[in-house]
Amino acid sequence: MGKNNKRKTGPDEGLVIEQLYSLNKEFYSDYSKDYFGLKMLVLGRVISNPGRFLDLMNNDEPVKIGAFEVKGNNKIEIDEIEKYAKLELATTYYHCIETFLRLFMAHSTLKQCPWFEISRETSFVEFKKKLAEFSERRFNIRHEQLSEDDVFLYVFYGTTELSELKEFDEKLSKEEAAGVLKKWIEWASRELLKVYDYNAYKHGLNIATGKRGFKLGQGEDDKIEEHGESLKFITKIEKKDRWVWQKNIVFTPLDFRAAMIHIINGLINNIIKVGRFTYLKEQFSEFLFLGSKALPESFYKEIKTENKFGVSVEGYSIELQYYKKDTNAI
Known about the structure:
Blueprint: H1 20-30, H2 35-48, H3 50-57, E1 63-65, E2 68-70, H4 78-108, H5 114-120, H6 124-135, H7 148-157, H8 174-193, H9 196-202, E3 208-216, E4 224-238, E5 243-251, H10 254-280, H11 296-303, E6 315-319
Antiparallel strand pairs: 1-2, 3-4, 4-5, 5-6
């Protein structure tokens, strides 16, 4: 029998549009807009005072989750508590960035139901293509009545006129204000493309956290160095004639990652507030406005070790040792 090549009807065709309002209301009402902010605060509390959290974990009161009940574990050690919280905060950073970008992509289309747009993009390959474009400032945002700058301003601030913003206290042009937002999307996309440590964490918890250091050079004035919190994992690297194993160290300054989670959580709140205004006709008040100096790179420079070369060390890698192949062997 012949192959049936008839195109299947898409999910949007014939959809009853009267149900979109209730879908939008359900989406914005149920959305956990402070998820990352709360998670950062909880983990920050644990990192700040692991002993206090350890006392809570080691008491005799059972843990109850519905019908499930388990006794407290009095064998947990304080270094395991610290390791857990630091690893969770370091990787939550990427989860937060991915959520932020997907939420922006869904709302920048200005279509009738952002919930559809978030659910529509299920291919990581296609998502990665968009990240690559965004990382090069190729946003490809087109709208009949709004410019690309207008779309950025509207998605985050709910208006295309800066004079309407009471939070606006800096003399920025529309182009400059939109440019700041574009830099955040560009930076976030680049960060997510460097997602090896996040992937290693997700796939088998194959990752270790701890304080490590790097130093290159001899004299005080001629050295490049970095010390601090980091993640360690192994990856497979393709060489010219073979594959090799490589141990990677990525510095994860927790103060920077916590600050980014805090700011991005604010931008996520902006998008949700504007969405409620756009689709549910609800008014909104306060939101996070980013001035010209509120850039990720500016925050990053504040916590990195300075050197006269202007080099910022993000990590380093060590290729594992291999036996030299005997080319004369028969």
